Amino acid sequence: MALAPNYAPLPIEIIAGDGAWVTDTSGRRYLDCLAGYSALNFGHRHPDLIAAARDQLDRLTLTSRAVDHDLLIPFADAVTALTSTEMLLPMNTGAEAVETAIKAARKWGYEARGVTEGRATVVVAESAFHGRTTTVVSMSSDPEARAGFGPFTPGFRIVPYGDADAVAAAIDETTVAVLLEPVQGEAGVVIPPEGYLARVRNLCTARNTLLILDEIQSGLGRTGTTLAQDLSGVRADLTTLGKALGGGILPVSAVVGRADVLGVLTPGTHGSTFGGNPLACAVGLAVTRLLATGVYQDRARQLAPVLAARAEQLLATGRVTAVRAIGLWLGVDVASRTGREVSERMASGGVIAKETHGRTIRLAPPLCVTEEELHLMMDTLESAVGR
Ligand SMILES: *Cc1c(COP(=O)(O)O)cnc(C)c1O
């Protein structure tokens, strides 16, 4: 086989997608409740997004940053307006956005904070997921993500997630940033205790340390707000965006945040050949137009109680050991079967979902899902976990 074995996909071969549904080679349809790990928040082939991409394909696709193009500043303006931030630095994948945020924080620490060059530390959380590059796996606490990939990038301190005291204890004069997911997606939709983000925000402000929130999976509507951090009333100094920013069409990521922090990345210090390309900006702009209406956030907020109620019912059956729901996002810990078995049984039942970390199923249907489809998802999950 010519394909590298770094994934173990479900035994389904998809050939078409439309809204919340996909079709396989045998013509069978599935409700897509993985939604590209939230890259497909607007469903497959949203007409506005496809139209924006098509129009752009007929006009201009790539320039490189050696010259400007007509959509670059409008894209930056639209995303910063949507997220109430000051400045945007465009990249492609999520991991690159996280790398960019770390580089900006370190350079800011040396230049603005006077941290001794080469000594900067970043506080990160246990069980976090921020991507797969060598520096990003250097801050992972997941043995599978790390084993065999050292030596690792130094300068990270890992603390338990959800414990603001642990963050406080880990910050010292070398600490340039605290990097967290507002809700840990890959860990299985782990929601921190009430007040956690606000406390960490206050700590970072008091210690003149940057708060970086990775909203690559939690952001852009998933939790019922534009950003998950909106639920806690905080604004990070830097926020990473990705996944849904590309509208399910192409990789588009960005770091948004404080102008004085992103401003340290002067010409020649950082960049990307494809970052902010015209096609990416056209799709990203169309994504911001969908989110600016508030329709997707409202929909996630309106359906959230339906999802949460079904999750509580499932928990009450005793067939699962824990459920965690926020917006249109659900983590379920299964006991009687492995997560893999449950996701295979769900696929047989016509719903695509994927396990994460052995015994957890993460469900993230497209935000265009209907209430009936949400019930179908939960019915299928319920029968897949067995009795
Ligand atoms: C998916 C994800 C990433 C990495 O994004 P890629 O595009 O796969 O590099 C980073 N952070 C979070 C929170 C993610 O969910």
From TrEMBL:
Highest taxon above the source species: Bacteria
Keyword Amino-acid biosynthesis found: yes
Alphabetically ordered keywords of this record: Amino-acid biosynthesis, Aminotransferase, Proline biosynthesis, Pyridoxal phosphate, Transferase
SUPFAM superfamilies according to UniProt: PLP-dependent transferases
InterPro entries, sorted: Aminotrans_3, Aminotrans_3_PPA_site, Class-III_PLP-dep_AT, Orn_aminotrans, PyrdxlP-dep_Trfase, PyrdxlP-dep_Trfase_major, PyrdxlP-dep_Trfase_small
Pathways per UniProt: Amino-acid biosynthesis; L-proline biosynthesis; L-glutamate 5-semialdehyde from L-ornithine: step 1/1
GO molecular function: identical protein binding; ornithine aminotransferase activity; pyridoxal phosphate binding
Required cofactor names: pyridoxal 5'-phosphate
GO biological process: one example: L-proline biosynthetic process
EC number: 2.6.1.13
Enzyme class label: transferase
Record has rRNA-binding as a keyword: no
Family: Belongs to the class-III pyridoxal-phosphate-dependent aminotransferase family.
Identification of the protein by name: ornithine aminotransferase
Source organism of this protein record: Ruania alba
